[in-house]
Amino acid sequence: MKGIILAGGSGTRMYPITKIYSKQLVTIYDKPLIYYPLSILMLAGIREILIISNEDTIPLYKKLFDDGSHVGLKVEYAVQKAPNGIAESFIIGEKFIGKDNVSLILGDNIFYGKLDFFYNAVEKHKRGLPRRQAGATIFAYQVTDPERYGIVEFGGDGKAISIEEKPKAPKSNYAVPGLYIFDNNVVSISKNLKPSARGELEITDVNRSYLQKGELRVEKIGRGVAWLDTGTPEALLKAANFFGVIEDRQGLKVACIEEIAYQKGFINKDQFGAHINRIPKSLYRDYLEKIYNE
After folding, report:
1. Angle at 292 between CA 286 and CA 294, to 5 degrees
2. Are 69 and 99 contained in the same domain?
3. Which terminal Cβ of the chain has fewer Cβ within 10 Å, N or C?
4. Hey, is 265 helix, strand or coil?
């Protein structure tokens, strides 16, 4: 299973911040926003990751993560020349994906809570689903304002019935967040898409292609999981405050990629210690030293 983080987009709602760099580098409490989606992939055991962004921001991601070896990852980078749609990720990442399945997460999506819904789905795809269940897995999050989202209707067996983008009369209250798992056919499906009215290759059209073949499965996200919006300055502030309270109360960091790498066995204690020694004196280093000495 490979992982892709789409961390580009024009980010016009965040201007003038996004005149300098993509919003995925904006700080959420004590770390860049992109740490949060990256941590989700890492916690699912995905270690080969492609970060897609615009030409100006890729060097900043390389400075942040390098090749990923310090946290036991293999990180690659690719440029999306223009915001041509989420589905273009699979065309850009064709060589990276190879013959594997792939999980895509949008670089501005944050999830917090019991995330077994995702980890279990990844394991199923890794093991190989029965043919009738193969294809794609999307996730369903209950919302009070479904008109603002892509909405999925699904049956008790987890099979998708319909999927709509910002419908005026929604058929369900379940939104589809920016987290997906696809089999290898997603590359050819994306290549055969036609741009939408807004000139983009739409992820909804990819999902519809799987739906038409009866290969779109839906996993419901249960209560107690927070899916945080980061589309506006106010939303970014709320997210930062949310994680600030959690970290202050528990004394544990959220989305600390070095800690995750160590706890998951991606790196050993010697490698963990060597990396800590390269970090300048900071509260972040103090926290990692505490984990190392436990």
Report:
1. 105
2. yes
3. C
4. coil
3-state SS, residue 51: strand
Q: Please state the domain count of the chain.
A: 2
For range 229-240, the mean pLDDT: 89
Provide the residue range defining the domain that includes 79: 2-137+177-255
Locate 211 and state its tokens: 């739906």
Same domain, 27 and 82: yes
User: Does pLDDT of 133 surpass 60?
Assistant: no
Residue 146 lies in a domain: no
Quickly tell me which residue has 């066995």 as its tokens.
265
* Residues 136 and 214: beta-carbon distance below 8 Å: no
Instruction: Answer yes or no: are the C-beta atoms of 236 and 28 closer than 8 Å.
Output: yes
Q: E strand or H helix at 63, and its extent?
A: helix 58-65
Q: Is 289 helix (H, G, I), strand (E, B) or coil?
A: helix
pLDDT tier, 134 (very low <50, low <70, confident <90, very high otherwise)? low
pLDDT digits (tens, 9 = 90+) for 255-289: 999 999 999 999 999 999 999 999 999 999 999 99
Q: Which segments within the chain are labelled E, that is strand?
A: 2-6, 27-28, 31-32, 48-53, 74-79, 102-106, 110-112, 136-142, 150-154, 160-165, 174-175, 179-182, 216-220, 226-228
Tens of pLDDT, residue by residue over 87-116, are 999 999 999 999 999 999 999 999 999 999
Based on the fold, state whether residues 215 and 265 are members of the same structural domain: no
